[in-house]
Amino acid sequence: MAYVVTDECVGCKYTDCVDVCPVSCFHEGPDMLYINPEECIDCNACVSECPPEAIWADVDLPEDKFQWIEINGEMSNKYPVIHESRGTKGEPTEAPAEPSSQPS
């Protein structure tokens, strides 16, 4: 099992989840975060830290969000690891300006 970031994170500028991750499995794209499923240790720490409730256990994903398992795997290999949150806990921050990471 691994945790998955879903579409509720698109455009989200919160990075609180990153600070509680013991293995630095979050990767930052231009408009959302992704979890590397190979690095995630299933600790569940990030789930309660996500204000938009965008993080799910892959086994609990609703059927209409199954595509996010593959998207997280692909995009986490494309974008750099984010090791710490940006800004103040519970407040949105600015993500780096890059081309959209939304799947086509």
From TrEMBL:
Q: Which Gene3D superfamilies match?
A: 3.30.70.20
- Cofactor dependence: [3Fe-4S] cluster; [4Fe-4S] cluster
What keywords are assigned to this protein? 3Fe-4S, 4Fe-4S, Electron transport, Iron, Iron-sulfur, Metal-binding, Transport
Taxonomically, the superkingdom here is Bacteria
**Which SUPFAM superfamilies does the UniProt entry name for this protein?**
4Fe-4S ferredoxins
What Pfam families does this protein map onto?
Answer: Fer4, Fer4_4
Domain 4Fe-4S ferredoxin-type stretches: 1-30, 31-60
* Entry note: cofactor: Binds 1 [3Fe-4S] cluster.
Q: Does the keyword DNA repair apply?
A: no
- Ranges that cross the membrane: none
Q: Where is this region: Disordered?
A: 82-104
Q: Where is the composition biased (Basic and acidic residues)?
A: 82-92
Enumerate the PROSITE patterns for this protein.
4FE4S_FER_1 (PS00198), 4FE4S_FER_2 (PS51379)
The yes or no answer to whether the keyword Iron-sulfur is present is yes
Q: What does this protein do?
A: Ferredoxins are iron-sulfur proteins that transfer electrons in a wide variety of metabolic reactions.
Q: Which PANTHER family match?
A: FERREDOXIN (PTHR42859:SF2), OXIDOREDUCTASE (PTHR42859)
Task: Please identify the protein, giving its name as recorded.
Answer: Ferredoxin
The record lists the organism as Streptomyces omiyaensis
